[in-house]
Each structure stands twice: as structure tokens, then as C-alpha cells.
Amino acid sequence: MPYCRYCSKEIHETASACPHCGAEQGIDIEIRKKGTVILAVASLAIGLITALATLNITLSQSPPYNRYILFLVLSVLAFVLGTISLWKRYPAMGSASVGVAFSILAFVVLLDRWNKVEVSYKPRNSTDSLAQEVRPTPEVPKQSLNTSWAPSYDCSKVTSGSERLICSNKQLSEADVRLSKAYAEYLTRVTNKKVAKNQQMYWLKNIRDACSTAECMLNAYAIRIAKLSQQ
Known about the structure:
The protein has 231 residues and is mainly alpha-helical. Helices cover 63% and strands 0% of the residues.
């Protein structure tokens, strides 16, 4: 059994302080300093990396979801390590303080950018990706949009080629009206209307608007109306 360096009484070999006089044992103090300084250094390193990465995400128009989550977790980790180091008054408190500051800055900026996170409502296969990369412009007949028929929206305010194509085609306009009614009835039957609206927006953008001909679009409308009617 070892002895206290101050009162010379017998103590346990793993004791960090003497149970008799309360004096801390010098060897244990040095070992603890070397071990706990790692917390402050880790907090500083992770916080700095996260802050720099957050700057890159801020400059991006639509940051990838997985990268966003990774740096959000790292910012929390840097904050926890730095807070423990400061609370315990471990060595290198200055480094821990800087690490905590970087982590808070990164976390706040990441939360502010939450609405820019790139999340897909459903996985896309290779055909979907190709359609997104090379999407031909719908063929719109060269005629006035002032017709005797109309889709479910105001043709005088259209901006996309797909909407102009629908406005110029009687069959497509009628199909759009039928879809609008089927979708309205579908919303009355579902409980999670937010998911239903997201699915409808996905279909409009990635299925209907991917068509470049009236035949393709009519087929897309027929499938969508049948699906909504069955659900």
C-alpha cells in the first residue's frame, strides 16, 4: 500500500486524494491533466471544423440532407465536450471556450438553414434522374390560349410550358379538371393531408411536367386519377 506524500498515512493505491488529510496526490494530478486536456482540444478541433463546414453549407443553395445532419451532430458533440471541460475546470479552458463558441455558432446557423435541406419524398430510380437532367420542353401548338375550354387553373397566369400545353389542348384541360375533382375528394378521405399534398406536388413536378407531348401527359393524368380514386 502507498503512503500519503503529506501526512505519511497509508492510502489506497487508486486514491486521488488522501482520506485523512485531504491532500491530492501529485502523480494522479499529472495523469489527470494529460487525460482531460484532450476534451478541450477535441472540442476546439470539432467546433472549428463544424464552423468551417457550416460556412460552406450557408453558401450552398440547397445543402444535402446527410451532410447537414452530420455537422449538426458534430456541433452538438463539440458543445458537450467543451462544456464538460469548462464545468470540471480541466486544463486548456481557453481552447474549450473557443470550441463551445464555434459549436454554438454552427448550430444556430444550421438551424436557420433547415428549410433549405434537400429532402426527397420518395427514392428516384435511374429513369427519374435522367428525366430530371434532360427534360425536353413540351410542344405547345402555336395558337391562342383563349379557347372555349379551361383547366382547373387560370390560363392567363401560366408560366411553364407544361401548363401552356394543357391550356391549349381540350383533352388535357378536361383531364386536369377531372384530376382536380378526384384530388379534392381524396383529401376528404385521408387523415394526413400534408403527406397527400407533398405527393401531389411530387407528381406534378416529376411525372406530369416530365412529359413533352400531349399523349404522354394524358396517360399520366389517367394513371393519377385512377390511383386517387382507388385510395
